[in-house]
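Sequence, please.
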């Protein structure tokens, strides 16, 4: 049995959030599990160990262990698909899977491609564009529409999702500030997501249909609805924006994408591997167990560092820190989790990326960052709130723009 390592790392302080990678490398060097003294949890920094934890949900449980405070686990996450186990999890997940399964999502591909092309034409101008605004609009127009909630709820959903992720963290200032908004989000869903307000045939409509068919209990409907509202927006917006940032920083990778726009899927996976939009989630251990030679006791909590697993050179080799959209098996990253709780919306996120990055590759010859992007500081999320990108349009796009201008002049 190994001697357990420990660390005084301030995992949620601004300095760490701005650049977590040196500390992640130090944790991986310390051992497979490292006791984080400030938070009383085990950090799991390596790919192999996080993969093992995700693959064993009978010992590593989600209920009561996904977030770092009891309050968030009990009041914000209780009854959600993310924070349930066993039979309850299976029942909730089955309802989501009907809507989010690859077969169902693939039917939306054409709609996503049309939407992405229209948005890129509207928002990507010769003077440059904001990658966050573009990604946000793509998600709003596709995912929010599929959810089936009134358009008037969009603003509240976006603010609420961000606060919900802050509320997973320890009881720091960021958490305290987010708690009222995250709690208000739960109240908002109870008030606004009703049989009458949601569109028939939409994702939310399907939840109520499952209640009517006896597949779900009435009281399970709103926690399940939060799987869509909390999990599907910021994650994808940050992931799409990050991919644009990586492509703008690496012109040779952009050229590879332009040669074959279908490489958009690899371009997206590679940016998720390198910069996981959700940096960590927890689990609680329900019986004494060993993980890579370290003894963990029943009732102890683990904090899986998805962001660190993407940089683990034991998995990705000496180029782990490099963005390379031709990397073999880059889609084996853990930014979507894995196992029974693995991201239910992964295929949906990938389809949005395929459409949006593909449309950008058609429309723009070159991308370059105009200044340093502004970072989001959140207990769990990693990414940007503002990214100005300078562009040179492709010849086709320039020709189309001149045609529009000359039509305007006449
Ligand atoms: C780039 C975008 C996304 C990323 C990085 C991401 C990441 C994750 C991760 C890491 C988990 C695992 C949680 C755990 O093991 O405890 C997860 C679960 C989940 N995600 Fe995503 N996600 C993304 C997009 C989406 C979208 C678009 C949706 C839905 C429409 C979605 C719905 C869910 C749900 C419902 C779960 C819980 C699954 C369960 O507990 O069974 N996600 N996601």
């Amino acid at each position: 049995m190994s001697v357990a390592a420990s660390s005084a790392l301030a995992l949620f302080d601004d300095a760490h959030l701005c650049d977590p990678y040196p500390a992640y490398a130090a944790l991986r060097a310390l051992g497979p599990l490292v006791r984080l003294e400030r938070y009383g949890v085990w950090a799991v920094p390596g790919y192999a160990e996080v993969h093992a934890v995700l693959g064993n949900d009978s010992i590593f449980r989600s209920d009561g262990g996904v977030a770092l405070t009891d309050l968030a686990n009990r009041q914000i996450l209780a009854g959600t698909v993310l924070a349930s186990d066993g039979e309850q999890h299976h029942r909730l997940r089955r309802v989501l899977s009907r809507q989010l399964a690859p077969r169902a999502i693939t039917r939306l591909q054409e709609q996503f491609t049309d939407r992405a092309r229209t948005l890129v034409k509207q928002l990507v101008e010769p003077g440059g564009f904001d990658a966050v605004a573009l990604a946000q609009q793509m998600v709003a127009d596709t995912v929010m529409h599929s959810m089936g909630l009134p358009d008037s709820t969009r603003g509240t959903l976006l603010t609420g999702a961000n606060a919900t992720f802050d509320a997973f963290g320890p009881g720091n200032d960021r958490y305290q500030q987010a708690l009222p908004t995250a709690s208000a989000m739960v109240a908002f869903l109870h008030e606004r997501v009703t049989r009458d307000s949601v569109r028939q045939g939409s994702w939310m409509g399907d939840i109520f249909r499952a209640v009517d068919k006896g597949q779900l209990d009435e009281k399970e409907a709103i926690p399940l609805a939060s799987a869509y509202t909390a999990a599907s927006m910021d994650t994808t917006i940050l992931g799409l924006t990050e991919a644009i940032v990586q492509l703008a920083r690496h012109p040779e990778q952009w050229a590879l994408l332009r040669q074959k726009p279908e490489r958009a899927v690899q371009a997206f996976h590679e940016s998720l591997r390198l910069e996981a939009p959700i940096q960590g989630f927890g689990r609680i251990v329900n019986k004494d167990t060993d993980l890579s030679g370290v003894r963990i006791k029943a009732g102890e909590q683990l904090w899986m560092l998805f962001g660190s697993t993407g940089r683990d050179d034991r998995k990705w080799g000496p180029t782990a820190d490099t963005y390379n959209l031709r990397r073999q098996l880059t889609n084996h990253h853990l930014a979507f989790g894995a196992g029974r709780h693995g991201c239910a919306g992964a295929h949906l996120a990938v389809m949005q990326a395929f459409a949006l990055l593909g449309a950008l590759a058609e429309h723009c010859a070159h991308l370059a960052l105009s200044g340093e992007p502004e970072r989001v500081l959140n207990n769990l999320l990693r990414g940007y709130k503002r990214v100005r990108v300078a562009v040179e349009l492709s010849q086709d796009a320039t020709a189309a723009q001149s045609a529009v201008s000359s039509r305007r002049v006449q």
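Residues 62, 66, 81-82, 93, 96, 100, 227-228, 231-232, 235-236, 239, 272, 277-278, 281, 306, 335-337, 341, 343-345, 348-349 surround protoporphyrin IX containing FE (CB under 6 Å).
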